[in-house]
Amino acid sequence: MNTIYDNLFQFSNYVRPIDLTFHQYLLASSEPLLVHTGDMGQAESLASGLKSILGTNPLRYIFISHFEADECGGLSVILREFPQAKPICSEVTARQLSGFGITNDVIIKKSGEKLSSDDYELEFISYPSEMHLWEGLLLMENKRGIFFSGDLMLRFGKVEDQTVAGSWQEEIDTIGPMQIPDPEKRSQLKTELGRLDPKFLATGHGPCIRL
Predict the structure, then answer these.
(1) Considering the domain 2-210, what is its CATH architecture?
(2) In contact, 189 and 126? CB cutoff 8 Å
């Protein structure tokens, strides 16, 4: 765990059989925000790291982009250690979480809505996440210019604390059928992303990108 950009800590786990690195992020602000939990095993290590950074400061929110093991598989572990934290997700993801007994204090957000604190402004964007195109959310933190891409923009390989230079438009252009199979939904999302102007891309997998 290291600061990778403006009070943003990155936690990473490399899974060799699929040659993919999984990242979770903590925005260590006045109302700390965790982005993704990892799976059950990753979450145990993550919880320890969060405690070492936060100390007595409580975790405020847990953002979940969509319902998949590496995004929210360890949610019960994190909530056990930080019971005051409130998950933030789409309505579809909230319904899926309820099937696993997580029903209390879930904050449901829709595309275009925002959530603000003294230190950040979170903007939520519709994400027709693979593989079933379940409605998820992407996250833009407007004050710092951080875009959390989930599975939308990724690279394979073992990567930790690594950033590379890149182009926002090129990242949008590379979104293909693997990420969003439906052509119409893919086109709509690309148009929506085109109006954003992020400075830093915090990926779910692969190096982060300075824009």
Answers:
(1) 4-Layer Sandwich (3.60)
(2) yes
**For the whole model, what pTM was predicted?**
0.94
Q: Three-state DSSP class for 139? A: strand
83-100 mean pLDDT:
91
Please name the amino acid found at residue 167. Answer: S
Nearest to 143 by CA among 37, 11, 1, 5: 5
Query: Exposure of 81 by Cβ count < 10 A (0-12 exposed, 13-18 middle, 19+ buried)?
Result: middle
* d(C-alpha 80, C-alpha 77), whole Å: 5
Q: What percent of the chain has pLDDT over 70?
A: 97
* 155 burial level (CB within 10 Å; 0-12, 13-18, 19+): middle
Q: Where are the domains of the chain?
A: 2-210
The pLDDT tens digits of the residues spanning 175-197 come to 999 889 899 999 999 999 999 99
